[in-house]
Amino acid sequence: MKIIIVGGGIAGLSTYLHLCKHVLNTTAHTIILYESHKPRPQDSDRCHASSQQHQAMLDLNGLSASTAVVGGGLGISPNGMRILRDLDIDLHDQVVAQGFPAEKFIFKGANGWTLGVQSTSDKTVRTGSDEAEVCIASSRHGLWETIIHYAREKHGCGVVQYRKVVGVEKWQGGTFRVRSVDETGNEAVEEADLIVGADGVKSVVRAALFGDDCRYQPVYS
Known about the structure:
By secondary structure, the protein is of the alpha/beta class. It has helices at 10-22, 51-57, 60-65, 67-70, 78-87, 89-98, 140-155, 204-210, and strands at residues 2-6, 30-35, 73-76, 100-102, 104-108, 114-119, 135-139, 161-162, 164-170, 176-181, 187-192, 194-197. The chain is built from eight helices and twelve strands. The protein is globular and about 60 Å long. 24% of the residues are buried. Residues 63-68 have low confidence and may be disordered.
């Protein structure tokens, strides 16, 4: 089976890592990850950086100045941290190290009075020796950078292929044809048995497979 994942962000990389872990016969399956935005040239050096060096590269001041491009902050809830733990405890610990634990949320009124305190821990629903998880606050870019660094360490620097997917269509026998172009404009067409659309709110995959069907459009609340 050939699987193509479109989008090398947090969702695409996480899907790739889960498939690599849970697909038992890796020789019988091919997993390809396409991303349209090529990283800065200096990012390629991180393929050879140690974990300690990688942490030193995370300049939080620089990330704060670039939120208009890479997105702002987010909180990884306990169930999300358990997914990372299930993938690999090393990845889990790297995500914790680059962020900071938010063990509780304090809600205050306009006058500064505390209205309530909400714990983020899941310890009340855990049994036995399970270690409790709390929400980890992180920049979006910091989380993405940690995951892609881990993926490159485990699966090589070529884990992401930098090509822009410009078209997807259903093909014979339930397969899909995926058209992509590289940075020089060279086009390639590949067939896939399974395609994963992790390419954001303007998803080429979603538009190709479902058109204008409102049931599959992003909804903001």
